[in-house]
UniProtKB/TrEMBL annotation:
Sequence similarity: Belongs to the dus family.
UniProt KW keywords: Flavoprotein, FMN, NADP, Oxidoreductase, RNA-binding, tRNA processing, tRNA-binding
Enzyme superclass (EC): oxidoreductase
Protein's name in the database: tRNA-dihydrouridine synthase
Length: 335
């Protein structure tokens, strides 16, 4: 049985979590990953100011979604009052865990409103934001952060301790600074200082793509679990695969026909959620990832051609036929 993590009063039935990812972890993706065994899949980050302006029914549909066994909403912002209001709306919409984003390195997030990983430079404000969210809701509040703004200010242990002191129930740390963005390698060993600074569960994040990297990240960080980001692209079953490996259980990677069924189900969820035109457009980023992650075509040029060809198709029915042709032909080649 998978190791459980206790996040306040909420039990997460697994230690392999899927990160909130803008443009990726929409409701159709979260439904797909959850049905494939993921125990924790967060929403895309939701700006508190925008969340506060949304109608409750819009918030419920776009940010949370009905029927998932665990609903996790990630909020981003820098105004404690907005953060509290956003947290209340998220909880009213069904969120069982609310995660605060202190880790996004994107310039459009860190500039201007100066939120996301820019908060690593403002520990007092970061603490105030956690306190505001915790005081506003009865559900657990967690924080996702980086090691610091840059190598000269790796202050994640301090901010994590401050967050726990005002009520945060879990901490996730990406093993890079903001100034690294996604360059170089994640420093999993640096996350150990955060683990030593708090008593709540700590998740290690960054460059975790398979069972081997998950084991090494856990060993070097001493963390209680791992969070997968880019490693889930085109492989929404990867959390279950890593969970099984960590527990010493067997897991068989989906073969061609199974992958096709996963892709088609995800595609149809996207069409149902967004409508045919937008659903097709929104699915293309996932389609490109599915092709890239498949064990066929073997050459990079063939993959590029397959992506280009399929992502130009405008008719959902035609795309389904083309997908079947690609996947089943690939399965025969692999056999």
């Amino acid at each position: 049985m998978s190791k459980q993590l206790e996040v306040g009063a909420v039990t997460v039935p697994g230690r392999v979590w899927i990160a909130p990812m803008t443009g990726v972890s929409d409701l159709p993706f979260r439904e797909t990953a959850t049905r494939l065994g993921a125990s924790y899949v967060a929403t895309e980050m939701v700006a508190c100011a925008e969340f506060a302006r949304g109608r409750p029914d819009v918030v419920r549909r776009a940010a949370v979604g009905e029927g998932l066994p665990l609903m996790v909403v990630q909020l981003v912002g820098r105004d404690p009052e907005h953060m509290a209001h956003g947290a209340r709306l998220a909880a009213e919409a069904g969120a069982e865990i609310i995660d605060l984003n202190f880790g996004c390195p994107a310039k459009e997030v860190t500039a201007g409103a100066a939120s996301g990983s820019a908060l690593m430079r403002e520990p007092d404000l970061a603490e105030a934001l956690v306190a505001a969210a915790v005081q506003a809701v009865d559900v657990p509040v967690t924080v996702k952060m980086r090691l610091g703004w840059d190598d000269a200010s790796r202050n994640a242990p301090d901010i994590a301790a401050r967050a726990e002191a005002v009520g945060a129930r879990a901490i996730t740390v990406h093993g890079r600074t903001r100034c690294q963005f996604y360059k170089g390698e994640a420093d999993w060993s640096a996350v150990a200082a955060v683990k030593n600074a708090v008593s709540v569960p700590v998740l290690v994040n960054g460059d975790i793509t398979d069972a081997d990297s998950a084991r090494r990240a856990l060993e070097q960080s001493g963390a209680d679990g791992v969070m997968i980001g880019r490693g889930v692209y085109g492989r929404p079953w990867i959390a279950q695969a890593i969970e099984a490996a960590l527990d010493g259980r067997d897991f068989i990677e989906p073969e061609a026909d199974e992958r096709l069924a996963i892709v088609l189900t995800h595609f149809r969820r996207s069409l149902a959620f967004y409508g045919e035109r937008l659903g097709l457009k929104m699915f293309r980023k996932h389609l490109a990832s599915y092709i890239e992650a498949a064990p066929w075509p073997e050459s990079a040029e063939a993959r590029r051609q397959a992506r280009a060809s399929l992502c130009r198709i405008e008719d959902p029915a035609v795309l389904e036929v083309a997908l079947a042709d690609l996947w089943l032909a690939g399965g025969r080649m692999a056999a």
